Amino acid sequence: MTAAIEVADLTVSYGDVLALDGASLSVAAGRVTGLIGMNGSGKSTLFSALMGAVRPDHGTVRIGGLPSSAARRGGLVGYVPQAEAVDWAFPVSVRDVVMMGRYGRLGTTRRAGRADHAAVDEALARVELTELAGRQIGRLSGGQKKRAFVARGIAQGAEVLLLDEPFAGVDKRSEATIVRLLRELASAGRTVLVSTHDLHALPALADEAALLQRRVLFHGPVGEALAPERLALAFGVTPVHSATPSVTPVHSATPSVTPAHQATPSVAPAHRATPLATGEHA
Ligand SMILES: Nc1ncnc2c1ncn2[C@@H]1O[C@H](COP(=O)(O)OP(=O)(O)OP(=O)(O)O)[C@@H](O)[C@H]1O
């Protein structure tokens, strides 16, 4: 059976910075997979490659058997960006954002029809944002914003959903809603790849995890990925033998590259092309 996501020997560099170095990953449909790695390990770059928004130096990316750009054009891939990648001042409502998930399906009139409005209503209800549908997107809490973007992916009917740090700055209720939704989507056969620093959330969220450090060091069941020696490998530290995995000291010990990444346009043309990071026009 064709894997939902198939990354083979992927190498991506920005000038002389090697962001991915021979990364390979195969994800079956109907699974939630956590993507774990320290700052700068290449998680966002992998998402950009999955959306066809960066050109690999080497290697291939396939989504449902298609090259990533074709998969994105066909609406197969939904993307929930990091909060920093979105222009929250953009004058659109929550409902407008969710409707963007339908753009690829609108006919030549570019007019939303009854089915589009129904899909948007249903997606808003599933993320519990019906009552806030008319509000400007920037005037939501961090968790509500994430839920709005998850709703966009649901309305789009994306087979593969990519979420970049969906729990960063998110309240517990939103986190629980998002986890529940992602599990439901996977049960219905969708494929979900989630990057997160929150290792505590991982067992409830994901079926499996991939540890990334420019290449995929390990990919397998969450329990095995969280073994101290494996985490140590991914985070480059001595194993900490404790019952609950903690990444905090490791994470905070590694310098964050996020601002550089956001400030440098070449990593994510998808982010720049539209203020709301649809990933559809790169
Ligand atoms: N546009 C760019 N120009 C130059 N280097 C870049 C660019 N974007 C990312 N990098 C570098 O590529 C490497 C991988 O970055 P990437 O953003 O993919 O990592 P990440 O795992 O998503 O990090 P974080 O957890 O901080 O979001 C880092 O060394 C980063 O500094």
TrEMBL record:
Region annotation Disordered: where it falls in the sequence: 244-282
Stated family: Belongs to the ABC transporter superfamily.
Comp. bias intervals (Polar residues): 244-265
Organism: Leucobacter luti
Pfam families the UniProt entry points to: ABC_tran (PF00005)
Domain ABC transporter: 5-239
Organism lineage string: Bacteria, Bacillati, Actinomycetota, Actinomycetes, Micrococcales
InterPro entries the UniProt entry points to: AAA+_ATPase (IPR003593), ABC_transporter-like_ATP-bd (IPR003439), ABC_transporter-like_CS (IPR017871), Metal_Ion_Import_ABC (IPR050153), P-loop_NTPase (IPR027417)
Protein name: Manganese transport system ATP-binding protein
